[in-house]
Amino acid sequence: MHIWEKSSIFALKMQTICAISTAYGVGGIAVIRVSGERAIAIVDTLFTGRVSLAESPANTIRHGRIERNGELLDDVLCSIFRAPHSFTGEDTVEIACHGSLYIQQTLLQWLIDAGARMARPGEFTQRAFLNGKMDLTQAEAVADLIASQSKAEKDLALSQLRGSVSNELASLRERLLHFTSLVELELDFADHEELEFADRSELSQLADEIEQKLQSLISSFRTGNAIRNGIPVAIVGAPNVGKSTLLNALLGEQRAIVSDIQGTTRDTIEDTLIIDGILFRLIDTAGMRETSDVIEQMGVERSRKAMENAQIVIYVIDDLTIDEVRLMDDWTKGTIIRVLNKADLLMGERMRGLEDEWILISAKNGEIEPLKRELVRMAKEMMCTSAVMLSNARHYEAISRAHEAILRVQHGLHDGLSGELLSLDLQDCLSALGEVTGQITNQEVLSNIFSKFCIGK
User: Fold this and answer.
1) Which of 359, 313, 353, 314 is nearest to 333 (CA)?
2) What's this model's pTM, rounded to 2 decimal places?
3) Which of 13, 142, 160, 303 could tie 285 with a disulfide, CB 3.0–4.6 Å?
4) Terminal alpha carbon distance of the chain
């Protein structure tokens, strides 16, 4: 642990913090959390019950009253947690009171008068990190879990909170640290050139394994980031095939203007939709066609960019103009869903066999369930591509640097570089991996991360 971390923990333990941990506003119940060395003693100055909080064992709940100078504020339940067995690793009291704004604000004022101070955003979680209750990836997963908008996003954050990323990196870092130590040991015996503590073939094998795992994590970021922010789905096709009608049908509201006039949609329109617990970011695009209209040309260009960035492209036609579809493969890196709209107008022989290549829908009539099922199937298939998935840009950046460093180690081993130069690249890789979990970090990074949390968490 770094010196600044030790001093930070000491300074924090000398301070007791408090904040409302439930959502702001009137409710049936509000919870006010108090944490720090004097948390139990401070709440005890306001609490009256059959047994004082100081005399209560850990992990118990006490019913009593909050009062001061003869003024009764509320009947409450106080949950007592004693260090180190609490969320923060410190003595903690959680006061469940009635959800009146007056009661909440008055109780906070009384706690501050008794010696506590208001918690900063994310300070409870920051203390949990500094006290070794979780690493930095898990702390960030707490914020992601609170902000999750879909089941998929919740599941991803919960997986990271339980240590999926942490455990993967800890294993890699531990094995790499062992070899780095051996390489540096060789440097201590530089006068004896015949000594080689770190077997180069084993180190090369380990570097290859680490490179593959880091590359897998890097590749997972596109999907993880999409789960966190919504899987981008571009709806494309020629003018008047029903793209905007389809967007409206998916959303269940008139989000886009629908008209028989070609070129009505001049710009991309975005909205989000949750299907089966998965968040999709739908992008309705301008019709793809050759045009001399400068404004429409700009819309077409934006459509192509939307396709390039989308993970799923819904290509819509309303006739069997198959030749146009083949162009899509050159414009997108995502998966294409081929949709035949206005299928209710097709009859007899024209319908035969189309289900094998096309998803048949009628957006105008709201008959889009086959498309929704295919969207969910594709999304779940993407999410199963990696057991451990990155969704945080900070993690992605640090692991990318670790990957570059391990590539240098591979090249150095191939070229027969000296142990001294290998050691520098190994240290760079270790340092970058340590930044992800918080084993190597600084106060500025921590302040930036935890400032984005809500107060009370």
Assistant:
1) 313
2) 0.77
3) 303
4) 24
Residue 382 has a CB neighbour count (10 Å cut-off) of 22
- DSSP labels, 140-180: HHHHHHHH--SHHHHHHHHHHHTTHHHHHHHHHHHHHHHHH
Instruction: Count CA atoms within 13 Å of residue 437 on its CB side.
Output: 23
HSE of 159 in the Cβ direction (CA atoms, 13 Å)? 18
The tens digit of pLDDT for each residue in 425-438 reads 888 998 999 999 88
CA angle, corner 448, sides to 128 and 219, nearest 5? 90
Q: What are phi and psi of 265, to 5 degrees?
A: -85, 110
pLDDT tens digits, one per residue of 80-103 = 999 999 999 999 999 999 999 999
Q: What is the DSSP letter of 436?
A: H
Q: Which two tokens stand for residue 403?
A: 């990957």
Secondary structure E strands in 213-361 = 231-237, 269-275, 278-284, 312-317, 335-340, 359-360
Decide if 341 contacts 363 (C-beta within 8 A).
yes
- Cβ-based burial of 130 (10 A; exposed 0-12, middle 13-18, buried ≥19): buried
